[in-house]
Write a structure and sequence with these properties.
This protein is of the alpha/beta class and about 140 residues long. The protein has 4 helices and 6 strands, in the order E-H-E-E-H-E-E-H-E-H. The longest helix has 17 residues. It starts with a strand and ends in a 10-residue tail after the last helix.
């Protein structure tokens, strides 16, 4: 039975949500059968480096949209499943995600990704803007 370290994961989640920190991502991974925080940071590229073929993890990410006049934070839940992850572990991820969602409750969209190119920050940002209704970006599309 998979468990989650609620307190530690909630703390990492809240740091990403907090407007007063620069932290914009937190990763949760499996340690045995427990989901635990696996790091957080301010550079999206550092998060991407954790997404290897052998990794399965959940990430809560803050993406800034908008322009200089009105910056808005949007949040996403990303489930990364590396291509070397076997069928059984893959199947477990979808049920285990409900544990993560007990803590990570505030996000505009979620992604399940197995290919690095889909982790591209611009792609994620574009999808989040689409998910968030009106797009008030000043520059012409």
């Amino acid at each position: 039975m998979t468990q989650i370290d609620k307190e530690a994961c909630r703390e990492a989640y809240n740091q990403v949500r907090d407007d007063n920190t620069d932290t914009n991502w937190a990763v949760f991974k499996y340690e045995g059968s427990t989901i635990v925080p696996a790091g957080q940071g301010t550079d999206y590229e550092d998060f991407k480096k954790m997404c290897t073929d052998d990794a399965r993890l959940f990430a809560f990410v803050r993406v800034t949209t908008g322009d200089a006049m009105s910056k808005r934070a949007k949040f996403t839940l990303i489930t990364w499943i590396g291509e070397n992850i076997g069928g059984l572990q893959r199947a477990k991820i979808s049920t285990d995600k409900t544990l993560v969602k007990d803590i990570v409750q505030n996000f505009a969209k979620e992604f399940t990704i197995s290919e690095l190119k889909e982790l591209d920050e611009e792609y994620i940002r574009t999808e989040l803007i689409k998910a968030g209704g009106a797009n008030y970006d000043a520059q012409a599309e």
